[in-house]
Inverse folding.
């Protein structure tokens, strides 16, 4: 079985950005929205897998997001 790769998106409330942690060498993402974060993952993860690990072809990628939203309920 091939190695599993993952990207974790964590909300940094102080900086107000989503920040990545990953087991893909060289992949570091910061984005204002989760949608933008995912677009950057799709654009940058294949490049990092190819350039830094020599991987080509389909690669499953686990993506998880964690954050806390402060809601005002009327």
């Amino acid at each position: 079985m091939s190695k599993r790769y993952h990207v974790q998106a964590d909300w940094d409330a102080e900086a107000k950005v989503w920040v990545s942690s990953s087991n893909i060498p060289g992949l570091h993402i910061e984005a204002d929205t989760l949608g933008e974060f995912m677009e950057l993952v799709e654009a940058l993860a294949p490049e990092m897998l190819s350039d830094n690990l020599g991987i080509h072809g389909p690669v499953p990628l686990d993506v998880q997001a964690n954050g806390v939203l402060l809601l005002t309920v009327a």
Remarks:
- The chain is about 25% helix and 30% strand.
